[in-house]
Amino acid sequence: MPKVIINDVEMEAKPGERLVSVARRNAAHIGFVCGGNGVCQTCQCRVLAGADQLNPPTAVELAWMPERRLAEGHRLACQASIRGQGPIEILSKAEELRRQAVHVVQPPANEQWVDQLNPLVDNVLKLWVDQLSRYPFNLINAVRHAGPVRFTNPSDDVAQWVDDTFRVGSMMLTGSAAAPRVPGQGRAEAALDNAARDVRRAEAEVKRLS
């Protein structure tokens, strides 16, 4: 079974599985909004080890990221699939920014908060510059890949993102992730509640008549 380490935590994975799937199953801190279509860019990560154990960058990644960024090991977790046994180690961009922000609020010993602010600002600016430098071709390619309906109506993805955010927050606060919700779970729970309420009403009516 491939060995994958995401944000310093070792996780179980399967051959051919996408990194974003491994991360989400284990409530790792990684972005996920567009259903894995390479549109939202929130699942960006940096491969620290085992780049040769992943598939080559896809057309979507080539459209969004300049060659310099790809050469530095940056990938989209929704496009990167496991092709070997590892070890593969990545740091998600979301987690990297979170750690930098924490260092601004709580600087390491003998350091000032402003010293920690510079790397954070530099990191964010590089992201924006990389995106804008390839606009609008990156956006056109993303829409072509995901489809205009998927791109303009990501409601299911947003709902899943909210659920993932809750699970990641639970993992950070308690050390264990809340159980993932399945598509339609909310509607199913509501239907069960309504059915149970109808049963109680029927039982009450039977008792009244008897």
From TrEMBL:
GO molecular function: 2 iron, 2 sulfur cluster binding; electron transfer activity; metal ion binding
UniProt entry tagged with the keyword Iron-sulfur: yes
Stretches assigned to the 2Fe-2S ferredoxin-type domain: 2-96
Iron-sulfur among keywords: yes
Gene3D superfamilies: 3.10.20.30
Keywords linked to the UniProt accession: 2Fe-2S, Iron, Iron-sulfur, Metal-binding
PROSITE patterns, alphabetized: 2FE2S_FER_2
Any one Gene Ontology BP term: P450-containing electron transport chain
Cofactor(s) required for function per UniProt: [2Fe-2S] cluster
Family of the protein in this entry: Belongs to the adrenodoxin/putidaredoxin family.
PANTHER family the UniProt entry points to: FERREDOXIN-2, MITOCHONDRIAL, FERREDOXIN/ADRENODOXIN
Protein's UniProt name: 2Fe-2S ferredoxin-type domain-containing protein
Organism per entry: Candidatus Chloroploca asiatica
